[in-house]
Amino acid sequence: MRYFAAAEARNNFIAATQNVQSCRVYLGKVQFPYCTEKEMSLMNETLNSAFNDIQTNSTLKKALDVYKATHKKLASLLQWFDKVINDTIIKDLDKANNEIAKKQKQLREERLSLMKKKIKSELGRELKITYDEGDDDDDFENEILALEAEKVDDQDELPGNNLSEILNLSQPDGRQPSPVPVSKLAPIPDKDTLFGDVKQKLDEYDNTRKALEKRNNLQREKQQIELQVIYVTFIVETYIYIYIYIYIYIYRSILIEFWNGNKK
Description:
Elements: H1 2-27, H2 37-52, H3 57-123, H4 139-156, H5 159-167, H6 191-195, H7 198-263
């Protein structure tokens, strides 16, 4: 019975450590202040040691201490994630949503302005547009409203709302780890670490754009040169044909005159 209980616990612990490792891979450059690779490696070693010696209570007691310590670190890691999301990511997301909503409105105004100018120039009429707040067919306005509503929807999906539920799962001795005071949590990473070097990404985009423009210009110049070569070749061949025709005509005239002279 002890063996089967230990095997089930071991499988669950292994799945948990794999989830932490997958999370580390997904987040890339973000360094975990808790549950470091060294700490998770100790967790795996403890799992194997306890499973190989499940009959010795002292070994299991040492393993339990490691499990409890790892559980506290995981709880702190979840708190840290919650802080990073709320203090950095959500704020930047709200700012980006506001900017997108403004740009959508500007694009809509520009679109309507261009439509008016086009109709004025093509049909000679003034286009009058009556904006209806309740017009569900206006795709642009629907997009804007959806973007503005995302801020409210996002608040309901914040990890912090479910954090207490996560911390309450499978607590050692029926107790959850005491939350770490926010002031004592590890510092949150800077934006370059979270989102990457924005300036570098912009420079890479600009370099790619310039490379594409250069390639297009080279192809355009190559096409122009090929067209010029074709044109020059056509002109030269035309002149050659003209010269040959003139030469044949003159030669034929000389032969005819010479032939007529011999007859006389």
